[in-house]
Amino acid sequence: MSKSLPTLSESFTLQEALEMISNEDNVEEIYVEPPEANVLTDEDSGDEDGGGMVDNLSGPQLRAPAEVRFINTTPRVIVPSKLRKLKWINGDIQSVGRAFDYPNSTEFKELSCVQLFEKFIDDDIIKLLVKETQNYALFNNCANPNISAEEIKCFIGILILTGYNHLPGKRYYWDMGSDMRNNLVYNSMRRDRFLQICRFIHCADNNLPDMSDKMWKLRPLMDKIKAKCLSNFQPEENLNYDECMIKYYGRHGCKQFIRGKPIRFGYKMWCFNTASGYLINFDIYQGNNPRRRESAILHNDGIAIVKWVDNGVVTVGSTYFGISPVSNVKRYSQATKSIISVPMPNLSKYNASMGGTDLMDENVNRYRIGVRSKKWWWPIFSWLLDISVHSSYIRNLAVHLYNSLFAEK
């Protein structure tokens, strides 16, 4: 498995770079990333007559990302101080062909589509929603709605249906007009009961908030669905790690803006997927994650770090692919104003099997739950239901593919 890593220029600050090259005599240049537009760096911290000295650099300059280039052309690796405990050596790893068994899907062979979905949204999750929905009604000094597990299941089913039967609003599914009303929804639950569940639906106890976790209102549900995704995962060879966006235009500390994305405003979710799009694990970006733990340092794991200058600088880490064999690709050179041949390391084969997160994102957004709410957590809640549908769909496809390849004669 391979994984894209940040570029070297993002790995350490100018102050760290200066400390690391204090004993070097062949430094050619040090590149410093420009400051943000709202950061004032016109004034140095020292006297005007002493310009050019390290002591005259301001705090924002010393904290800015930096990159070091040496006079000779021999590749050099500058390691940030926080990574110096790791032992780095020059060299390459050999790509060794290893047999990887096709995922065994026999345990899902006899399950229906509904049963596959219940592998992700099971009775334990339904009980959680029933309990916290009733608790939230009482928290708001309202009468106990006495919502049953069957009603929560019906409620989720209606939400899923709105993903492919879009109407102007949730009330229209019970409208008397023949061009609006959906008989399946109309006959399964009363409109006012559906709206009541929409009002009180909840995933966590408001009496026990965890203010260090911005996602505490969804954390119990997220943890349970994560566990289901992991337990139903059938090991595959090609995996990828990427981000996806959950559309949201309201106000929240976790809302992000990413220029160039199809969805520019919303919550950023880090996703770990198979090449087919199955979601293995995920977590929402919220800055400093309060659930992150210190871990043991990797030792002698044979991880190769390769930095390759393509149209941009690409840094990739892998335990499987190395530099050799080197191939050539055609690129346009601004210097020569012509097409030239550029050596490309073997590790770039990572690109051949990536895209599973984008595939999942495309499938989920094609049939996104259509019911909207003013609650900040509703887009994430509905996304969790959508990815449960998608994951069960991928498992169903895997069953059919497994049967076609290994059917008993």
From TrEMBL:
Name of one Pfam family that matches: DDE_Tnp_1_7
Residue intervals of the PiggyBac transposable element-derived protein domain: 114-295, 300-392
Top-level lineage group: Eukaryota
Single GO molecular function: sequence-specific DNA binding
Signal sequence bounds: none
Membrane-crossing segments per the record: none
Protein name as catalogued: PiggyBac transposable element-derived protein domain-containing protein
Organism, as annotated: Photinus pyralis (Common eastern firefly)
Source species taxonomy: Eukaryota, Metazoa, Ecdysozoa, Arthropoda, Hexapoda
